[in-house]
Amino acid sequence: MSIFVSRIQTKSFTFKADRNMRSDSVVIIPTYNEKENIENIIRAVFGLEQPFDMLIIDDGSPDGTAAIVKRLMADEFKDRLHLIERTGKLGLGTAYIAGFKWAVAQKYDYIFEMDADFSHNPNDLPRLYAACAQEGYDVAIGSRYVNGVNVVNWPMGRILMSYYASKYVRIITGLKINDTTAGFKCYRRRVLETIELDKVRFKGYAFQIEMKFTAKQCGFKIKEVPVIFVNRELGTSKMSGGIFSEAVFGVIRLRLDGWFRHYPKPS
Length: 267
Hints:
By secondary structure, this protein is of the alpha/beta class.
């Protein structure tokens, strides 16, 4: 395997929506102790030419992350920035499930997953949006591995672990997706309306695999959009051995589900 970082040419899209109007899209960002990043990522998303609303889901960050969000909500981004506060660190998967249910109830057409630490470039949001809104896909994945290995500032050991974890998932599940653990995604609302969210079982990074697998089993069209992933500069990574173990062993259970479980189809 050759490992390299490639430069991806990004396309620009022109949007003429009124920036004071509610967007048809919402970016969901789970947070835990992200005070160094949260204001900058919010301003970066709201600074895009295309309007996106945002939902922050904070798991009781003791560093005051939620207080920063509340200040921005009150002072500058009323009706565009939203916050769900939860008590305690309840897991990535449950945070996104709470966000998905909220976004579906609010009738957003396009619902995004994104990290707070700038490992996902906000400038790529319109490209994921275009894959769903213009090209007709149901799920768009910001993929590190669709064109080689597009990762910056990760240690070699973590690159190899992530790359071969995705290979392992593909072999076990049969998913034809290069970046099976990617957490930068856009869903059409109907995907999240169809998936039985209360039956999603994983809480860590296996959650990302389960959502892709379930979307595929339900019959949705998925596209990988090449992105460059940049390791965080501020704050602390939430990756742990337990999270990785869940992903490794959880995919076997997903494969068994694929054989025996009935998956709903889009109406």
